[in-house]
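User: Before I run my own analysis I want an independent prediction to cross-check against. Here's the chain; please return only the structure tokens and, at the end, one sentence I can use as a sanity check.
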Amino acid sequence: MSFFGKNDLLKKLVISFIKVICLTRKKDIFLLYFLLTLELLILINSSLIIKSVKDSSFMFIIKIFPSLFPTMVIGNLLIKNNIELIIPKFIKKIFNKLFNFNDIETSIFIISIFTGTPSNAIYINEYLEKNLITKKEAEALLCTTHFINPLFVVAGVGIGVFNDVKIGFLLLVLAWISNLFKAFLNRNNFKEKRKMNITHSNKNFITTLSESIKTSINALLMIFGIVIMFNLLVALISNIFNLNLCTNVIINGLLEMTGGIMKLSSLDINIYIKIVLAYIFLNFGGLCIQMQTFSMFNNKKIRYLKYLIFRLI
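Assistant: Structure tokens:
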């Protein structure tokens, strides 16, 4: 190819590149630059990244999976077998009086207390797909059913971090009270009452159990991947900016809650400050858990801003 031919080809490539840039939205360009920068940082810090992935995998297998899997499977079984039919009437009346909840919304709230987040999003999505709740109700429920798995709070945080089961139960009760208050604030979103066509499952228990296990495993694999990516991001930030331990723990807790809470035990600060930080991390959930929650919705445009505001309360 002649020199002039090469020049023409180069000119065409430059023009094509400029056209792509002009047609691409600014936020997409920013995302592309961010991803390219992240890829470069991963290559430069390969040994750090490998260690981060190993630590995240270990934490998931030891801390997260054992507390989430059994409760997630049982929660799915309860939803698929119409748990709203067995909740006592007096409980339904209390929830209806205080929060304007119908039977479905009451069942989601109660199960979420015991199974935690992001399991609550799975249940909300299930009822949303069956048209048993509206999009408005789904968004309100998402804001009020953000519970961290009680087994993790009591055993993982109370005993594992503070060496005191009482602190675990204190944090758990505070989380429950917080969500009850948020449910009351959202009561106007549940005023619409309509006849619900609830269909009873004709599937046998083995089939329902298999479906629940598959749903839980798929959800946990998604959670596993998101946990790895966020811990990787935390490791890169800490390494690049050479953060001190306290700052590292706070950033870790806001990005990936579990890792941040586990690191609280290494801080040499007043225990009451540690408890406050633990509560803040649990209530906020970390961007990692928030992403896990929204990944459970199947192509539903659930607004994030309202959810984020309620995480900051």
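Sanity check: The first helix runs from residue 3 to 23.
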